[in-house]
Design brief:
alpha/beta; four-stranded mixed β-sheet; 8 helices; 9 strands; globular; binds adenosine-5'-diphosphate; binds guanosine-5'-monophosphate
Amino acid sequence: MGTLFVISGPSGVGKGTLVKLLMREDKELALSVSCTTRNPRAGEKDGESYFFLSREEFCKRKDEDGFLEWDEHFGNFYGTPKSFVLEQLKTKSVILEIDVKGALQVKQALKGSSVSPVLIMIAPPSEEALATRLSRRGSESEEELKTRLERVKYELSNRDRYDYTVVNDDLGEAKETLQKIIETEKSKRRF
Ligand code: ADP
Ligand code: 5GP
């Protein structure tokens, strides 16, 4: 049985970048691909960054209890596919990259089961650095940027509810810290 790692942090903090690096170097990790009703950004392929669903398709899956958790952000729905995660965990460790509310919902949903998720918060070195990263990424309008930055305080205020916080200042260092956490937690569950 693998370990479930839940990675959260404000939009633009570098979660996607870090997870990509982790996956490239550890073939024993599986990444849960979430479903969303938002439009793909340039370069995003269906089934890689997300499964892009219509609102109708998303609601159908939700009603069929197909999500471990789901939430609405910035007017779009996002959800973690339940069967994929539970199936992969039989043989591998799994990474979920989801927001704070979703992470706490996953923890609640799995209470009393044999899966005990490890929650990891990625924090920016400063709010200014985060704002620069988000605007450099260039994937959001001014209005969307503002909404995402307003959520930062809420996300970071929950860091005490997480098992670990990793500051993504130098990308290489943050990746190594994450790798150490993953190895430590995996070995705790090995017998
Ligand atoms: P998230 O998935 O958390 O929304 P991304 O991974 O898309 O964030 O990163 C947002 C932007 O910040 C991207 O353009 C990425 O290249 C850049 N970035 C990520 N980590 C760092 C870092 N440590 N230093 C500088 N820029 C970074
Ligand atoms: P983005 O549109 O920038 O890819 O993601 C917007 C927000 O949705 C981020 O905070 C991200 O963590 C969150 N998110 C992505 N996938 C999921 C998911 O499956 N469930 C929940 N609850 N949030 C998600």
